[in-house]
Write a structure and sequence with these properties.
- Residues 13-28 have a biased composition (Basic and acidic residues).
- The protein is 32% helix and 34% strand.
- The protein is α+β, with helices and mostly antiparallel strands.
- The protein has 2 domains: 27-140, Sandwich (Jelly Rolls), CATH 2.60.120.10; 162-295, Jelly Rolls (Sandwich).
- Strands 11, 12, 13, 14, 15 and 16 form a 6-stranded antiparallel β-sheet that branches.
- Bound molecules: adenosine-3',5'-cyclic-monophosphate (2 copies).
Length: 306
């Protein structure tokens, strides 16, 4: 990987003794970097000082179509945040590479080998020219891994109470904590919009979430009304349906009062929550009943799970 010649490793005596990596950036680069990092879940729980150290340490890498950014089983060097480009994810199953997903101009990858000191768990290949922001292993471990230790302490007890995660081993539940980030919403704020493409899954930590669905008032009526179909409170989850069905969001979600949610991205959802799928599917079957009770039929869900 190219490292700009201007990069420095400085000793910062004010906050800690560990070396700090700084890759100088133009204003334009820093702005693009901030934009690319805005929705990265692993960065959400960092305090402003930690975030600024992460941004200082990141450096840009351009890639070409077909380039292997990561090869499964290699050692981990960097964590990557996507600025642009599309990438395929392959995982070896019984010796053959299987396409398990892709990234489309957003998201991040390469955290697992750095978090758990394990070989790379997947191969990532660019399927277009692209631009990535890279964070070196040492800075990642110093800041993100340390932050994860705090997160585990904070959420361990709560995670243990979630019925959804009972099929997971303790170590798997801790991996769930590692990938979760918190998001706070104010009263009436929209969390999910019906019809949007989906890229994350939510668990309510505090407050109430109102789930609503748009329905035509009559069969011939063009106007739609938004009807409340459920509420979720502490320990309950939502936003799984679109990830399971690969369809747009089936309903909207709004905060009632102030709400705190734990959020997980689709890749982590697929990688970690496989064993919880039975519970989720049983619950999805309940959605149909719920809609039949409310509306007399549930065409949306029937189409989605067909
Ligand atoms: P890492 O193991 O460091 O390098 C490969 C990356 O691919 C991995 O971190 C994850 O960020 C990402 N990835 C995406 N989907 C998967 C998956 N299903 N299994 C393993 N890794 C995945
Ligand atoms: P998703 O479709 O991803 O986004 C909206 C969420 O609302 C959906 O996932 C479910 O988690 C949740 N939900 C709750 N009740 C229902 C229901 N009856 N039909 C569809 N979605 C529901």
């Amino acid at each position: 990987l190219q490292t700009p010649l201007t990069s420095t490793v400085a000793n910062n005596k004010k906050t800690d003794k560990e070396p700090r990596v700084t890759h100088p950036k133009t204003d334009e680069q820093r702005q693009r970097l901030q934009e690319a990092c805005r929705d990265i879940l692993l960065f959400k729980n960092l305090d402003p000082e930690e975030m600024s150290q992460v941004l200082d340490a990141m450096f840009e890498k351009f890639c070409t179509e077909g380039e292997h950014i990561i090869d499964q089983d290699d050692d981990g060097d960097n964590f990557y945040v996507i600025e642009s480009g599309t990438f395929n994810i392959f995982v070896k199953v019984d010796g053959t590479e299987k396409l398990v997903g892709c990234y489309d101009n957003r998201g991040s990858f390469g955290e697992l080998a750095l978090m758990y000191n394990t070989p790379r768990a997947a191969t990532i290949i660019a399927t277009s020219p692209g631009a990535l922001w890279c964070l070196d292993r040492l800075t990642f471990r110093r800041i993100i891994v340390k932050n994860n230790a705090k997160k585990r302490k904070l959420y361990e007890a709560f995670i243990e109470t979630l019925p959804l995660l009972t099929s997971l081993e303790m170590s798997e539940r801790m991996k769930v904590v590692d990938v979760l980030s918190t998001r706070v919403y104010s009263d009436l704020q929209q969390i999910i919009a019906q019809g949007d493409l989906a890229d994350c899954f939510y668990i309510v930590e505090s407050g109430q979430v109102r789930i609503t669905m748009k329905r035509s008032r009559t069969k011939t009526d063009q106007e739609e009304e938004e009807v409340e179909i459920a509420t979720c409170s502490r320990g309950q989850y939502f936003g799984e349906l679109a990830l399971v069905t690969n369809k747009p969001r089936a309903a909207s979600a709004y905060a009632v009062g102030s709400v705190k949610c734990l959020v997980m991205d689709v890749q982590a959802f697929e990688r970690l929550l496989g064993p919880c799928m039975d519970i989720m599917k049983r619950n999805i079957a309940n959605y149909e009943e719920q809609l039949v009770t409310l509306f007399g039929s549930s065409p949306e869900i029937e189409q989605q799970t067909a």
